[in-house]
Automatic annotation (TrEMBL):
InterPro entries hit by this protein: Mannosyltransferase_CMT1
Protein name listed in UniProt: Polysaccharide export protein
Domain of life: Eukaryota
Length: 402
């Protein structure tokens, strides 16, 4: 009985100590993370901005948010300091009509632009005879059009005026890619102010169903790992996680996440201008895929010197409701991460780091890359951090995993 009593007393003591340690750590997490969650607005700087976007079946957000938002940006930066380039193709809603309104609005204020409204649908694309690249033999026994090279081609089309204007002697400071998101002018300005504008790329955080962030395909932490969780504080890397908790620019390997601003210098290179791409078809055939929005950063020579940064103080949504949920107001009482979510997220993240090892999760990708490299001379993929165990193809009503 005495021994049993001693064991129970010892167990009780251990549980008390663990409880105190959890409480202390929770208080530390709270104090570190709570204060910085309310940010200050950005400060406008004179820059020339090339605004780019690709759209497909985005009528609602275009009419209600994107088109008015771009027109406000034009006014904010000044009509002479902006160029707007948009590619739309194959929508079956009224996206073309919404973008035609943008075209007229820009025309009225004298802003230079290129708005492409292409009638070519996804079905038209996949019915074409397979080309030399961008097509893949899938487990369905078909040769199908890969999604990522298709999107990379559209993004490169949007950038064509940037190169044409450079040949005429005009250069821009930043390229601003804006997805089909709800945003405000202050969000964009705050993004451009990231690190006082000193970056290879700076991204927002995007949300479709808060508190889960949306763009898992492109976001990699400072060590090149996929995010540990979709809710705050997201990252496995300590460097990325600590910056996020302090509401400071987060060092990452890659991001996109709704809006991204990029230094234009690499796009103007005379020897090897930066462009969007997909991975080689021979690598994709091994059931590996990487986002063009991730590969652009691993290809960018400025990423190593100026860095790629996620700005947690810039949060956009794929609906007004999502935007409002992650932008609740400017007082500390309305911080975008609530106390309960913050404490729960900190401990969930900690437990996941203790109980999982990224090596096992990434071993399949590494093994397939090695197989690919040894199967052909001179095969190198610099964007290994972007690759995941997926195969994605275009279909008539969107895209599919195969």
């Amino acid at each position: 009985m005495r021994r049993s009593f001693r064991y129970r007393a010892l167990l009780k003591r251990i549980l008390q100590i663990v409880g105190v340690l959890i409480l202390v750590q929770s208080i530390i997490d709270f104090r570190r993370s709570r204060a910085p969650l309310v940010e200050q607005p950005g400060n406008a700087k004179p820059e020339k901005i090339f605004i780019a976007g690709i759209h497909w079946n985005n009528e609602k957000v275009l009419r209600e948010h994107w088109v008015p938002g771009v027109l406000r940006l034009v006014k904010h930066f000044g009509e002479d300091n902006v160029y707007v380039s948009v590619q739309e193709s194959g929508s079956w809603d009224r996206s073309k009509e919404a973008l035609a309104e943008l075209d007229k609005g820009l025309e009225m204020v004298g802003v230079r632009k290129k708005i492409i409204l292409d009638e070519t649908t996804h079905e038209d694309e996949i019915k074409k005879p397979p080309g030399k690249s961008g097509w893949i033999q899938t487990p369905r026994g078909l040769k199908e059009l890969r999604r990522v090279p298709y999107l990379a081609r559209l993004r490169n089309l949007v950038l064509e005026p940037l190169y044409e204007l450079a040949q005429a002697g005009e250069h821009f400071d930043k390229v601003l890619f804006i997805n089909d998101v709800v945003f405000k002018t202050q969000d964009v300005q705050r993004l451009l102010d990231t690190r006082d504008g000193d970056f290879a790329a700076a991204c927002s955080l995007d949300f479709s169903k808060p508190p889960l962030f949306y763009d898992t395909f492109a976001l990699r932490d400072s060590e090149g790992h996929d995010t540990l969780m979709q809710s705050w504080p997201y990252f496995r890397s300590r460097e990325s996680r600590d910056a996020l908790k302090a509401s400071q620019p987060v060092p990452v390997t890659s991001c996109w996440n709704g809006i991204v601003a990029m230094d234009t210098a690499p796009f103007y290179s005379s020897t090897n201008p930066l462009h969007f791409r997909g991975t080689p078809d021979t690598l994709a055939a091994l059931h590996l895929e990487g986002s063009e929005c991730c590969l652009i950063h691993t290809d960018n020579p400025l990423s190593a010197t100026k860095g790629v940064w996620l700005n947690p103080n810039v949060r956009v949504g794929y609906s007004q409701r999502a935007y409002d949920q992650v932008n609740p107001g400017g007082s500390s009482a309305n911080a975008w991460v609530g106390t309960a979510s913050m404490l729960h997220g900190s401990w969930e993240n900690r437990l996941l780091r203790w109980l999982t090892i990224e090596w096992f999760q990434e071993s399949t990708v590494r093994r397939r890359i090695k197989t690919w490299q040894t199967s052909g001379e001179g095969r190198i993929e610099t964007g290994a951090a972007c690759l995941i165990n997926e195969m994605q193809v275009l279909i008539a009503n969107g895209w599919a995993h195969v």
